Amino acid sequence: MLAGVLAGLAGLATSYATAMVLTIRESPVVAVAELVIRLAPGAVAERAITILGTADKPALVVGILVLLLACFAWAGSMARGSWWRPVLVWVVLAGIGLGAVMAQRNAGVVDALPVLVGLMTWVAVHSALVDALRRQQRRPDLESHERRVFLMVAGAISVASVAIAVAGRFVGAGRRHVEVSRRLLRIPGVTRRTAPAATSLGVAGIAPWQTPNEDFYQIDTAIALPTIEPDDWSLRIHGMVDRELVLGYSELVARQVTESWITLSCVSNEVGGGLVGNARWSGVRLADLLAEAGVGAGADCVLQTSHDGWTCATPLEVLTDDRDAMLAVAMNGRPLPIEHGFPVRTIVPGLYGYVSATKWVVDLEVSTFAESMGYWTDKGWSALGPVKIASRIDVPRSGDDVEAGEVTFGGVAWHQHTGIEAVEVQVDGGAWERAELGEVPSVDTWVQWAVTLDVPEGDHEVRVRAIGLDGETQSSVRRAPDPDGATGLHTIEISAG
Ligand SMILES: Nc1nc2c(c(=O)[nH]1)N[C@H]1C(S)=C(S)[C@@H](COP(=O)(O)O)O[C@H]1N2
Ligand SMILES: [Mo]
Predict the structure, then answer these.
(1) Of 53, 56, 318, 463, whose CB is crowded by the most CB atoms within 10 A?
(2) How far is the CA of 206 from the centre of ligand 2 (A)?
(3) How confident is the model over 66-93, as pLDDT tens digits?
(4) Domain range list for the chain
(5) What is the pLDDT of residues 1-27, one digit of tens each?
(6) Three-point CA angle 222, 223, 224, nearest 5°
C-alpha cells in the first residue's frame, strides 16, 4: 500500500509539474474538480456552497485528493496477486483525468501530456517499488538491508516528487504572469491587417500564405523558455558606437513602429521541410537605432545576445540598408508569443534565423566578425547565412494516389529579399512547366505557386524549381543543411490511376 501511495503521489507531482511548465493551465486534478462542478446538479452545488462557504472549491480538490490516495493504496495492495491489476487502476484513473482535461474549453493535444507523464510515473515508480519489495521477500536473510534500501528509495521518491512539483509551480507561475502581461498589452501602431487576398491561389493543401502564430515553426536552444516582463526588459546597444543606448520596453514602443510581411526560415530546413513561415511583423527599424548610436569606423557586424545567453553575429550591412530589419514586438498583430521571443526579438529579411532572428534579445554589441562569433558559427556553421532560393511541393503529398488526367500541383517558393520570378514543375524528367504565382507585397516573403498538368496513368516523379528575380535558377545539386543551408530540388512520387 505504501508503494502504491508513493507511486501515486510521484505521478501527481510529475503531472502537475508538466501542466505548470507546458500548458499554463491547471493540473489534471483541478480539471477533474472543475468537471465535477460542471456536472454537479445545481441543488447539490448550492448546498455545498452554503455548507462550506467560499471554501467549496479547495474542499472539493482536497476531497478528490483523499479519494485518490485511497485508490493509490488500493492499487498498491493489488500488486501482490498480479501485475496487471494495479496497472488497470492507474490506467482508469488516468482515463478519468484525461477525460476531464479534454472536456476543458479549447483543450488540445498538448493538454493530454501531463496526464500521460503522470501515468508513466505511476507505472514506473510502482513497479520499481514492488520489485524492491519482492527481492526483499525472496532473501529474508538480507531483510534488514533490503528494507533499508526500500525505505531509502521510497524516501528519495517522496523528496523528488515534492521538488518536481515545487519547481514546476515556480516555472509555471512566472510564465503565467508574463502571459497575462502579454495579453493585456496594447502596442500603439500595431495593426491586425490580414493577408492581401491576391497572395492566396485558393488551392487546398498549399500552406496558407500567412502562417498563424500557433502553426509557426519554433527553433531554439532554450529548455525552459525565458519569461520576461516587458517592464523588466531592456536592451543595450554598445561596442563600437559613439553613444551607448539603453532602451526600456516603453521607450522602444514609443518610437515609430514599422510593419512588414517577412518570411523567416531555418538553415536546418531540409529540402521540402517545414522550418519556414511567413508573418506580419511589427517593430522598430534597427537602422534608425544604430544611426542614433553612431556606428564606428571598421565595425562590420552586430553581436546579438538573448536573455538566455544565445548569440549570433549579424552583418552590419543588412541591419543598416533599406530593408526592414527590426526589433519586432508583434507577430501577426499580436504581442510576440513567448516561444517566439516575447517581449522583443530581431527579424532581418533575407537571412536565416541562426544569424539574425534573436528571440528575447537584450544586447546588441557593434563589433567585427574577426572578434565575434555566434552560437552556431562556433559549432561549425557558416558565419554568413543569406537564405538560399528554395521551393516546396505541398500538394499532392509524396506517396499520394491521384486520379489520372488533370492534376493540380501547388506549394510555396522563397528567396527572401531577392524575390521569386518564376516556379517550374517537371514530371518524370520532361519539360519544365511554368506555374501560376500568387501576388506578394514585397520580395521579403514567400510566394504560393500552382499549376495543373495532364498526368497519365502510372507512377510518376514530380520536381519543382524556383527562379529568382536576380535570374538565379535553384540548384539541383543535393546538399545537406550543414554548414550554410540545404540545396536540391523537392521531389515527390505519386501514382495516377
Ligand atoms: N534566443 C534565441 N534566439 C534564436 C534561437 C535560439 O536558439 N535562441 N534560434 C534561432 C534560429 S536557429 C531560428 S531558425 C529562429 C527561429 O525562430 P522561431 O522559433 O520564432 O521560428 O530563431 C533564432 N533565434
Ligand atoms: Mo534555425
Answers:
(1) 318
(2) 23
(3) 999 999 999 988 887 788 898 999 999 9
(4) 2-176, 207-379, 390-496
(5) 888 999 999 999 888 888 877 755 567
(6) 95
**Predicted confidence (pLDDT) per residue in 383-423, tens digit:** 999 999 999 999 999 999 999 999 999 999 999 999 999 99
Using the mean position of ligand 1's atoms as its centre, give its distance from the Cα of residue 376 in Å: 11
Residue 300 in grid coordinates: 562590420
In this chain, the answer to whether the domains covering 207-379 and 390-496 adopt an identical fold is no
Cβ < 6 A, ligand 1 pocket: 216-221, 264, 266, 306, 308, 310, 340, 353-354, 357-360
Q: How many residues does the chain have?
A: 497
Ligand 1 atom nearest the C-alpha of 346 is 24
CA atoms within 13 A on the CB side of 463: 16
Cα(95) to ligand 2 centroid in Å equals 38
Question: CATH classification of 390-496, choosing from 2.60.40.650, 3.90.190.10, 3.40.50.1000, 3.30.2130.30?
Answer: 2.60.40.650
CATH class of 207-379: alpha beta
Residues 170-197 as b/e (b if ≥16 CB within 10 A, e otherwise) read ebbebbeebeebbeebebebbeeeebee
3-state secondary structure of 433: strand
| Nearest residue by C-alpha to atom 24 in ligand 1 | 358
Identify residues whose C-beta is under 5 A from ligand 2, the ion: 219, 266, 353-354
Ligand nearest to the CA of 359: 1
- Give yes or no for a contact between 362 and 235, defined as CB atoms under 8 angstroms apart: yes
Question: Which residue's CA is minimally distant from atom 9 of ligand 1?
Answer: 220
3-state secondary structure of 476: coil
Closest ligand by atom to 220 CA: 1
Pairing between strand 234-239 and 361-367?
Answer: parallel
264 CA: nearest ligand 1 atom:
21
Ligand 1 atom closest to the Cα of residue 361 is 1
Distance from the alpha carbon of residue 51 to the mean position of ligand 2, in angstroms: 57
> For the segment 193-252, what is each residue's pLDDT rounded down to a tens digit?
899 999 999 999 999 999 999 999 999 887 668 889 999 999 999 999 999 999 999 999
